[in-house]
Design a protein that fits this description.
Length: about 100
């Protein structure tokens, strides 16, 4: 269901989910949606800001991601709009670093 890009992102997430400790030893051939099902039990959607041509992005606010009790924003859209909203990034060692205007 949905757009081809959405389906491709979902398949990509499932493939990455194979390496998640949250899923355990689930057999992807038996249950190919195991990662999504595990996440849907833990993560709840708080609100969604649909895509608009003005914003050129879509935002979903969730709670429970990676065990956090606070809210997390998932944002997708035009790269220049997404980067403009960022103040930090994770480097290849998973360290949070500041994102300067020059870096953007």
């Amino acid at each position: 269901m949905g757009e081809p890009t959405e389906a491709a992102l979902k398949v990509f997430a499932e493939k990455l989910g194979r390496y998640s400790n949250n899923v355990g030893n689930a057999d992807q051939k038996v249950n190919p949606m195991g990662y999504a099902e595990t996440l849907s039990q833990k993560v709840k959607t708080v609100a969604t800001l649909e895509f608009s041509s003005e914003r050129k992005c879509m935002s979903t606010i969730i709670t429970g991601y990676e065990g956090n009790s606070g809210n997390t924003v998932l944002l997708k859209g035009a790269p220049e709009r997404v980067v403009a909203k960022c103040s930090t990034y994770l480097d290849c060692h998973n360290n949070r670093k500041s994102l300067s205007e020059g870096d953007k």
